[in-house]
């Protein structure tokens, strides 16, 4: 696991119109989040905070249990989740893209399944409230409908009645 450092800084890159995380002299993470999506605090306090570091490590340790991703992928997922949680403005719910979950098994994990008219895919819940959850797309590309898609790690808010549990046999089939 890449250890968080007080030297890490969030960078608002006008050239790329993206939020970057400067990890060291040789490494930067380019997020899919555009500058207009960022909170004002991103511009005022660019340092990776203790709160950022704690959340990053919590997400990393949670995801490692699934044994689905290599350490570099875990780091990338965790850092993008941290950016969404602390650097993005609130996103509006766009639940109409997703089918309601009508099953009886409740979702108890933060890695969930969402199903659009075009496909099903895995998402990570970054923030949860009683009505809705902010999630990031874990697939390379997730087709919402014929015209719209989400790039990897793009955030979307959905009503909780759209959240499908990730079934254990699905997880085990990916591990094998």
Description:
- The chain has 176 residues and is an alpha+beta fold.
- It has two domains: 9-87, no CATH class; 95-175, no CATH class.
- Helices cover 26% and strands 28% of the residues.
- It contains four helices and ten strands, in the order βββαααβββββββα.
- The protein has helices at residues 40-44, 50-64, 71-87, 168-175; strands at residues 9-13, 18-24, 27-30, 111-115, 120-128, 132-137, 141-143, 149-151, 155-159, 164-165.
- Strands 9-6-5-4-10 form a five-stranded antiparallel sheet. The chain has a three-stranded antiparallel sheet with strand order 1-2-3, covered by helices on one side.
- A hairpin with a 3-residue loop joins β5 and β6 (132-137).
- α2 (50-64) packs across α3.
- The longest helix has 17 residues, at 71-87.
- It is globular and about 50 Å long.
- The two termini are 23 Å apart.
What is the strand arrangement across the widest sheet? 9-6-5-4-10
Number of domains: 2
Largest sheet properties = 5 strands, antiparallel
Average pLDDT level: 92
From the alpha carbons, calculate the radius of gyration and give it in angstroms: 16 Å
Q: Helical proportion?
A: 25-40%
